[in-house]
Amino acid sequence: MSAIAELSMTDLAGAIARGEVTALAAAEACIARIDAKDKALNAFIRLDRAEALEAARAADRKRASGGALGPLHGVPMAHKDMYYREGRVSTCGSKIRRDFVPKVTATVLERLDAAGAIDLGTLNMAEFAQNPTGHNAHFGDAHNPWNPPYCTGGSSSGSGVAVASRMVYAALGSDTGGSIRLPATICGVTGIKGTQTRVSRAGVMPLSFSMDNVGPLTRTARDAARFMAVIAGQDPKDPTSAPEPVPDYEAALTGDIRGLRIAVPQEWFFDGADDVVVTAFEAALDVLKARGAVVERISAPSLGPVCTAVAVVSRVEGATIHANWMRERAGDYAVHLSARLFGGYALPANYYLEALSLRGPLLRRFCAEALGGYDIVATPTLRTRVPTLAETDVDADPANWQRFMAVSANTRPFNYLGLPTISLPCGFDDRGLPIGLQLAGRPFAEGRVLQVADAYQRETDWHARVPG
């Protein structure tokens, strides 16, 4: 069972299709890992054990009958507890929605179901997806599988933990300021957010109208490519979803990145960076150069106003979404979250409108500075070594606020700019905690981002390492 649990998502799907592994064996392997590890790590909010095992048996019957199989047939997954499934509780990691039962199913869940995936249940998350560390006052904090006193990254904390610890093969997260990429880097897995509007958000609890993204946490870039191909594409239920055709992302994973140009912005991303992070990042660039990529340092001064605007947009939109609950149930929020939401009400409307109006010009400027002559922008995902849960607990000590917000400093700009961005492991620090490499591309260039990530993973094994 341990060997089955350690297969990648795409390898498992292939093994099931060939009849080498059954979907039931894969589901039982995951459930065995959950039973052994989740008490200490707290990744799951709900495990649908009986339903998942029956779905796995049905998947095996379908294969045995010769029925057509989807690209994820029989693959066990679980998802951040903000993706609605009709008739099942979706807590959004909150007290307010602890008993909420939606009447709709998220489009991305419907697409995963159609692809043959098995849903094991729902995963822990930061309350209403609103913090970068993964703390949760209502369901308890998830714990880092490499070193439990340390944070997991958020807000998709349970997703990062479950994939890293091999409880599931992949998991949906969401990313408004880094909430896929942060748990990916801190837990040592691969996580991608697509171009803004690339994936439908229908049936998903919102945080920010203009910056929310749906995407996967997986073990490899190839896994992410297949997952994205399943969930991406226009959806009539989400009028903001883009009509751009979805390419074959896996076909782009040739391993050949000769001549690709990679830009490394010198502003912002390295401010206060720890030496161990910079060393791992530079070593990752050397791997890409050895495979034929051209790496150059550039200046991108547009990042200053980008980082100011992202704070305004996220706070105002979050406060708007939560306005009724904040009037009626403010005491049911964690202290740090209600403080952030109240702050959104203090921002003048002209600040918000200015931040929105600058988005297009700043995107064009950044693309000219950083992507005009380049294919990819590369940065560290997290500037510093992974902090502990205690060091980033702002409810226990408001003095931790600066460290808490610094966790997402390098991820937030790409949400405002709406660019496709991936994080993948590129090393470990002196305490055995992962370090992440972040790669961003032009709008709708997910294939190029995945191509570079896959080329890197062909030369390294950081993504294949498993917590003890």
TrEMBL record:
Amidase domain sequence ranges: 27-450
Key word Ligase present: yes
Gene Ontology molecular function: glutaminyl-tRNA synthase (glutamine-hydrolyzing) activity
Keyword set, alphabetical order: Ligase
EC number of this enzyme: 6.3.5.7
Domain of life: Bacteria
UniProt KW Signal keyword: no
Protein name: Asp-tRNA(Asn)/Glu-tRNA(Gln) amidotransferase subunit GatA
Gene source species: Plastoroseomonas hellenica
